[in-house]
Design a protein that fits this description.
This protein is an all-beta fold and about 120 residues long. It has no helices and ten strands. It has two domains: about 50 residues, no CATH class; about 40 residues, no CATH class.
Amino acid sequence: MPKGVALSTVKAAKADSTASMMLDGQKVSSEQINAGPSAVRVEIDITAQNGSVQAYVLNFPHSPSANAYLSAVAVSAGCLYPALSASVTDYDVVIPETVHGPVTITPFLADPIPAC
């Protein structure tokens, strides 16, 4: 989550209206849960009438990643030259003369936190 953005509520919908819901160990009656602006992790437990429990954990990382690198670059026809390296920022895409259709180049982020 970007700095300066505050989480205030989480809205959770139970599949069964007779089930009970707990947020961080506290029973709640509303589907809209006040999580608080400093929340980085929210634990939701749903308990069915028969006592079975399903736990959910939502993580809200506040620190943006400092990783601005690629983990891979896929070229549909041809190759990347030189090979991908964190210390290299200038590449050639070498496409054989026999390729006559479109070429797709797909970069993959090295950062494990997805950009939605």
